Amino acid sequence: MIQTSPKKIDCWVLSVKLQKPSLKDNTGDTDRLKTSLSKILHTNSIHMDLSLMKEVPQLLRKWDYHVQCILFKDSSGWIISGLTHTAEKKPITGLALDLGTTRVVMRLIDLCSKKVLAESSFDNPQIKIGPDILSRIHYTSSKEGLGELTRLIIDGCNTEINHICNSCRISPEDIFIVSVAGNTAMTHLFMGLDPYWIIREPYIPVVNRPGVLKASEVGIDVYKYARIFIFPNIGSYFGGDLISGILYSGMHKNEETSILVDVGTNAEVVLGNKSWLIACAGAAGPALEGGVTKMGMMAGPGVIDKVRIDPDSIQFEIHTIDNRPALGICGSGLIDLVSQLFLAGFVDVRGKFVPDACEEKLIEQDGIQCLIIVPAHESGTKKDIVFSQVDLDLFVSSKAAMYTILNTITSSVGIEFKDLSTFYVAGTFGSFIDPVSAINIGMMPDIPLEKYKVLGNSSLGGASLILTHPEMIDEADKIQNCITYLELNVNQEFMIRFSGAKFFPNTDASLFPSVKVWQE
Question: What is the CA angle 221-129-382, rounded to 5?
């Protein structure tokens, strides 16, 4: 009798040598294959598409009953999602996909060796409809709007899949598993699901657990029987990309309490350990993504990513990506800039420019005070690159929201920042931000720098783990099950803390003992 408890395997590809049929053993070809796998997996819950079943007799005889089975898993058990010959020289691959609102990143992985074969990215083609999720959701209400947005992202993915496969001299047919992590709205648009109710009270997605689908159903052009796993979400504002990030960080397995922050359009935060997880999200990202400041841009050549003010000369020291003439500034550069302006006394604790300190750098445009960061003769635009008081005010609101989100979620469970073992910072925000700059302006807590750990693209990292460690697909579901979501929109303490956080570094300066302005 086959055991019903599944056995842990460390690879989605299993090689099986079958006993050949005879007059004494007339077991059907598909049953013969499933029985052999059952002995390895210790379960009878093994499924196969009818279309693949039709090919089994020919393939088994062609390969002398020695085959490689590409497996996957869903809530009903194991799935045989592909068969290859054991002598096959081409890699058997999987594709991890970080489905970003602005940028989509792919990673091609050999399922047997678990090596990364290639990585690529492309701008999300839905940007031409709307730069942000909200505008895209509204567009779905128009005739053919949802279909157009879905076609754009699916066609974009298929085009990039061809490119990444060509770079490795393989075919999309060699991709047997796809793992997708994205926010709730992006995964809805990816699957062609109507996101209408995501942005309307009480903010309900079509589905929280998309689970395992056939790639062909979604429209992804890979192996014809390939499966695609789409990470579950917690709700409208906490998506599969964060579940993937938690999985990648491993914080859900730690004894000690840690926190994970990912800043994009929203700031999404998870706090907890192996026993519990609590999460929340809030609007703290736009000013850091180039969506608010006039000189704000996504990272790219010529974009300012680091700023320093020389304490002696009080002159700006600007660094741009690829050392090109400055065109604008990205999130990490903006945080550096505001930090340096505050420390140098160009900006006061209220977030207002100090004319006496700024001197001739402070000009007026259309009645608004603006600080010249890069003069026209040095910029790539041949115009002054300026930072206005309006830009600064919007940034102050974003930084205050970021700190308040962190303060509110920790306070909700009676934890202080000093009690955290690790402060994980994810996404592009985490890859390039200088924690010292964020601390100086009261955006992130003043804790020892060694507690900060940069995860990079944790969404892609978690999606990759699904391909390299089969047990992680169950882990993702467990994470989704144990998260408690804290709704900030109805949290009265949030607005009280938010008001106090709209100062540099905070109305309570004792919370930031390491911050010292230069004039002191």
Answer: 115
* H helix or E strand, kind and range, residue 227: strand 227-230
**In this structure, what token pair is assigned to residue 338?**
């505001």
The Cα-based distances of 509 to 15, 410, 512, 516 in angstroms read: 63, 19, 6, 10
397 within 8 A of 377, measured Cβ to Cβ: no
In a domain, 8, yes or no: no
Range of the structural domain that residue 127 is part of:
93-230
303 in the same domain as 212:
no
Rounded Cα distance between 442 and 499, Å, is 13
Distance CA 444, CA 288 (A): 14
Q: How many domains does the chain contain in total? A: 3
The CATH number linked to 46 is 3.10.20.880
Residue 2 in this model has a pLDDT that exceeds 50: no
pLDDT tens digits along 244-272 = 999 999 999 999 999 999 876 677 899 99
Residues 6+ apart with CB under 8 A from 274: 252, 253, 254, 255
Tokens representing residue 11 in the block: 């690879």
Residue 7 in this model has a pLDDT that exceeds 60: no
What pLDDT, in 10s, does the model give residues 305-337? 999 999 888 899 999 999 999 998 888 889 999
**Do 363 and 502 fall within a single domain?**
yes
Confidence at residue 291, expressed as pLDDT on a 0 to 100 scale: 47
Residue 358 has pLDDT above 80, yes or no: yes
pLDDT at residue 297, rounded to an integer: 72
Q: Which of 53, 85, 117 is the last residue of a domain?
A: 85
Where is the domain boundary, 230, 250, 268?
A: 230
What is the Cβ-side half-sphere exposure of residue 249, based on CA atoms within 13 angstroms? 38
